[in-house]
Amino acid sequence: MNLSRYWQQAGGYGETIRLAFPLILSTSAWSLQHFIDRMFLAWYSPAAIAASMPAGFLEFTIASLFIGTTSYISTFVAQYYGANQYEQIGKIIWQGLFFSLFAMVIILAWLPFAGLLFRLAGHAPEIQRLEQQYFVVLIAGGGFPIAAAALSSFFSGRGDVWTVMWVNVIATVVNIGLDYLLIFGKYGLPELGMRGAAVATVMSAVVSFALFMGLMLRAKFRRQYHTWSGRKFDAHMFRRLLYFGLPGGAHSFLDCLGFALFILLVGRYGAEALAATNIAFNINTLAFMPMFGFGIAVSVIVGQRLGENNPTLAERSTWSAAHLTFLYMLILSVLYVVVPGLFLHPFGKQATVVSFQPIYNYGVILLRFVALYSLFDAMNIVFSAAIKGAGDTRFVMFISVTLSWIVMVIPTFLATIIFHWSLFVSWSFATAYVVLLGLIFLVRFLQGKWKSMRVIEESSHVISVLLPEKPTPEMEI
């Protein structure tokens, strides 16, 4: 293969990186936000970092059904954009906002059960108290990330990824600043600890929602994409969103539920094992979220190319992303194994050597598991994103749910509750789950069924050759 020519051609490395790079920065900003959030909580107290992951992951699990559904709007936008059906783009965004209102009501219904959820987990009383504090605030503001995901799809689906990046960077800066002020009580503000971290997260989502809404309603977007005139409820389009989007949301929800149950079960090994697991997963977000940016880019590219009826370029772009993500993960995996202290030491900065050393010892071994499964996670993210970008959401949901329970959740339950095996046995089950996911989605992609799939309706009119070319993605802040 001529590397220089492949870099420059359509669907090659260059085109893929140009679209993925802002999304990588965007998802990396989200990753950095959570990394610093957990790091501040580790400085605040060992109990706070131990409680943050179960509570935060459980809230995200509940919200992920709805975030996954509204995020899938980017596939609709990409295919409408590729098919030159611009008048449909504003309509599908508004269907996502209507869905967000429904989702907000469902999420708030979990508030009365906060205490019960963490009592059932069987964690120490102090950990339960902090988990409940964190969870309640996140649930109260849980509607904003869902609506923001729908709005961001307007930009990412058209390839205007720089706008998505800048909005997420601004929201991240807001979150980090409020984290520092509210967790520790700086500059006269109250010391809120766990509640402060949760309030900062909610406020960053509010900022993200407000910025995306304001930008989408600019005059040029109202004219070209009907972002205001398309605000009416459209029952047919809403049903299509549910038909294709809900399986993607269910996949996100059930996948997260599997990991949430895994974390809750691991908590039975004790606070040190739970804290080490939380830290290992938090470190993994440094690798996962940039790859997730590649995944979004792949879904957008596949959607646009299929909208243009060009599956060959869609396939080439997917392989370009797969090569790049695997190289990235290979480098990080080597670092996890060779220099684990580089990633672990920041969490112990404010802790005593005696209190942090057991957590560190666990963490060194857990990062070896992360190094192994991350290579297959690259395959999982890229190839599942490609087939979801075409509309193959039900297969992704079915495989993820089945493997999650059969390979990870049920074996971990048996290991912790029945047989009392070690922490590392439970982590072996989680690793096997990710490895199998990557391999199965690779096979599904190679089978090629996704090439004939579409999520949009066929255009009922012919586009005149006299019409101007579709606009190029640009930074439009």
Quick one: overall form? globular
Count every beta strand, where a strand is a DSSP E run of 2 or more residues: 0
Number of helices: 18
Element-level helix/strand string:
HHHHHHHHHHHHHHHHHH
Helix content: over 70%
Overall domain count: 1
Distance between the termini: 39 Å
The quaternary organization reads as single chain
Average pLDDT level: 85
Architecture overview:
The chain has 477 residues and is mainly alpha-helical. The protein has one domain. It is 79% helix and 0% strand. The chain has helices at residues 3-8, 13-44, 46-71, 73-82, 89-108, 114-121, 125-140, 143-158, 161-184, 194-216, 219-225, 235-266, 271-307, 311-338, 341-344, 353-390, 393-418, 423-447. It starts with a helix and ends in a 30-residue tail after the last helix. Mean pLDDT is 85; it is low at 460-477.
